[in-house]
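quick one, 68 residues, struct below
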Amino acid sequence: MRAFLLQYGDGLKDVETLVDVGGGTGRHVAEIVQNYPHIKGINFDLPHVVATAPPYDGVSHMRIVLQF
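---
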């Protein structure tokens, strides 16, 4: 993640909301929000995955629920 932020961090200056689809426990989006606190982070994953996600400042966890 550190390499990503160093390489592409300038591209995040104007981002207001960042959604990480399949974000697992939200660690990556949380690290981005920590470095760019103006960004609202959303971690989006399956219910059983999000259930294990710790709280992170600036990050909301959302569950994907699929019904067929």
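Residues 2-63 form a domain with the Rossmann fold fold (CATH 3.40.50.150).
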